[in-house]
UniProtKB/TrEMBL annotation:
Top-level taxonomic group: Eukaryota
Name this polypeptide is given: Nucleoporin NUP37
Region annotation Disordered: where it falls in the sequence: 57-77
Compositionally biased residues, Polar residues: 60-77
Length: 669
């Protein structure tokens, strides 16, 4: 896959044109062994997995090793007999699988790819396609502990270290949980897989939740996480109980026996709206499937009916053993966001249970679950309604909602371009300034504003309310550029049923051990903006000093050209902690209808400028030193005039002169 590169100023845009329609994409949180970033996107014919960057696949000795391995396989009598029996017994399926396994594992170069002016970002080194009978509309990936946390390797399922695991929802109302090796396949195996008829070409496994056992209509979204099985089968769990789970698995013998489950949450518009929770046990043994067989039907372990269809669902960004790692964010279409804990004992069920009332583990799980928080958007009057008719008022519609600040808050985007943050724990930057009466109001954002103005208003990023076109805006460089653009462009964005938007949140562990540093990207129509550090922006908003040009405020993302296609999603690439600390913008993955776009900072331009500046400074220093040496010789010969003495004094003040004894001296300034 070769992209088309567009450069503009400090940014570069890479455009990958695709032969199919793309609906969604996700960036896997764990990198491949060769350092590649894994991108998964769903399209009209299935799923494609991309390995981007890292060490490239070797091309030289790969073919010879494969041929030697195939010759050895074909020349062994025992293997030939086994293959012949497999052909007779299993109609070539086992033979095909063995033929693919005969290829050597991929080998990589010793060094990573060097970037130049023609290739400002890492390239795609490998890709594979997974065929699915219907279009893939949604993809969910499990959360993994961020680098720098105290979570150990034993507190994460082994499958998440060795394989890529994700969930997809299709237009046939089915949900599939897929796993495949995390390392990219070799080119030889990929070439052989094209002619193979086996069901698993890349070593993938698939567990299917059919529509007749789950959703009757097309799922509107899906989310997934993981948890130890014993925390679900106890029949009762609270936040206090979860604090002791880490100690329960502390012994090494106990850690080796921990059994894990994948938890899948999905929603659809069945009835008035439905939320379903699925539990898939992960196999821990060697030589067997990791995911359960899809032949037995997989039924939901919980079903919850909603007052209106949901817009999105998302599990908490915290992972086990955090106390809230199972909390689920559910945003509906009528302006309400709720937090649901699927395996928490309801308050009305915390009583003494008699022996005859004991339930099986499956029955116990189906009766668990509690709604722990609720937030509502403000009201608006539709264009066809009247302000004097309160019955026509309705709550603002939610386009998207995501967890932020480590599960302590929720950032929301509304259909009229308003965005805001709900402070769940009242631990935000302005919590101390908020009165007790305001804290119990679940309709008020802790911070927020309007991305764009409506009804002919002016576009002002980060404003607290839409500004009229006649109002005077402060003349900062940011607003001045916006005013100049408005003279020649129309930034009005349609609202209402046709509004499109979404939120992307990428977290980094705080260096001080406090609230995670969140990078937020919000898209609304064709308008894309970012907050480099949400915690700093929150603190500045609380003090009333948001909107500074050089501060960590809300700024517009320039350079995204989709060639007129709708934006279906935006994701943020991971960055090393050293690069993210100065709040440098992350590279963005933009999902258009028939293309993938990667927006990146043109670091090569900065590097060349830094080298050129260093060379010029070094050249100037040499010239100055030569002049100082000439003045020194004239001074020793008694021929230095007053101008030369002034030059020497200036050089001595800057610490760049040479004393008569040959020693460099300098003066503190």
């Amino acid at each position: 896959m070769k992209p088309t590169v567009f450069k503009k100023g400090k940014t570069a845009l890479l455009s990958y044109e695709l032969p199919h329609r793309v609906h969604t994409a996700q960036i896997y949180p764990k990198k491949a062994p060769n350092g590649s970033t894994i991108i998964i996107y769903g399209h009209t014919s299935g799923v494609r997995i991309l390995w981007r960057g890292g060490r490239r696949l070797k091309q030289s000795s790969e073919t010879s090793k494969t041929n030697q391995r195939q010759a050895k396989t074909n020349g062994t009598q025992g293997d030939a007999i086994a293959v012949e029996n497999d052909i007779v017994d299993d109609n070539n399926r086992v033979a095909e699988a063995r033929r693919l396994e005969a290829f050597e594992d991929a080998e990589f170069e010793s060094d990573e790819e060097e970037l130049d002016a023609q290739s400002p970002v890492p390239s795609i080194i490998q890709h594979v396609d997974l065929a699915i009978p219907s279009e893939v509309l949604h993809i969910a990936i499990p959360g993994l502990p961020s680098a720098g946390t105290s979570v150990t390797k034993d507190q994460v399922p082994q499958i998440l270290h060795d394989r890529v695991v994700f969930t997809v929802a299709s237009v046939d109302s089915s949900i599939r949980v897929i796993s495949l090796p995390i390392s990219p396949p070799s080119n030889a195996r990929k070439a052989a897989a094209k002619s193979s008829k086996t069901a698993s070409k890349w070593g993938e496994e698939m567990a299917v939740i059919h529509g007749q056992y789950g959703h009757a209509q097309i799922p509107g979204g899906v989310a997934m996480t993981w948890t130890p099985r014993h925390s679900l089968l106890g029949g009762s769990r609270s936040d206090v109980d979860m604090l002791d789970i880490d100690e329960a698995i502390a012994p090494r013998s106990a850690r080796q026996k921990v059994e894990w489950d994948l938890i899948i949450a999905s929603h659809s518009a069945d009835v008035s709206g439905i939320l379903q929770i699925f539990r898939l046990p992960l196999a821990s043994g060697q030589g067997k499937r990791v995911l359960p067989e899809s032949a037995p039907p997989i039924f939901p372990c919980q079903t919850r009916y909603l007052p209106s269809p949901a817009v999105c669902v998302a599990f908490s960004p915290n992972t086990f053993p955090a106390t809230r790692h199972m909390q689920l964010l559910v945003a509906d279409s009528k302006g309400c966001i709720k937090v649901y804990d699927p395996f928490r004992t309801p308050l009305d069920s915390k009583r003494v249970v008699r022996a005859e009332e004991l339930l099986t583990p499956e029955q116990s799980i189906s009766r668990l679950g509690e709604w722990v928080a609720s937030f509502n958007t403000g009201f608006e009057v539709p264009k066809t309604g009247s302000i004097n008719a309160p019955a026509t008022a309705q709550r603002k519609r939610i386009l998207d909602a995501k967890w932020a600040t480590g599960g302590r808050s929720i950032i929301t985007l509304l259909a009229d371009g308003e965005w805001g943050v709900w402070d769940i724990d009242h631990t935000g930057s302005n919590a101390s300034r908020t009165s007790a009466t305001k804290r119990v109001d679940n309709t008020t954002f802790a911070i927020g504003g309007f991305l764009v103005a409506v009804s002919g208003s002016e576009v002002v990023a980060g404003s607290q309310k839409p500004r009229s076109s006649r109002a005077l805006a402060p003349m900062t460089p940011n607003t001045r550029r916006t005013r100049e653009e408005n003279l020649f462009q129309d930034h009005s964005i349609p609202i209402g049923p046709v509004a499109r938007g979404g939120i992307s949140v990428a977290s980094l562990v705080s260096a001080s051990g406090g609230v995670p540093e969140d990078s937020v990207v919000i898209r609304y129509g064709t308008y894309v903006c970012r907050i480099s550090n949400l915690a700093q922006f929150w603190a500045r908003s609380a003090s009333g000093s948001s909107g500074s040009l050089h501060g960590p405020g809300l700024s517009r993302v320039e350079g995204i050209d989709t060639r007129g296609e709708y934006i279906n999603g935006i994701q943020q690439f991971d960055v090393p902690a050293a690069k993210a600390r100065p709040a440098s913008p992350r590279d963005l993955l933009v999902v258009a209808e028939h293309r993938l776009l990667i927006l990146t900072e043109n670091t090569n331009t900065h590097e060349r400028g830094r080298i050129l500046f260093a060379r010029e400074a070094e050249h100037d220093e040499i010239i100055v030193q030569e002049e100082m040496d000439i003045d020194q010789k004239l001074l020793e010969g008694g021929q230095l005039n007053l101008d030369g003495i002034d030059n020497m004094l200036d050089g001595m003040a800057s610490g760049a002169t040479t004393a008569p004894t040959g020693r460099r001296v300098g003066f503190a300034t």
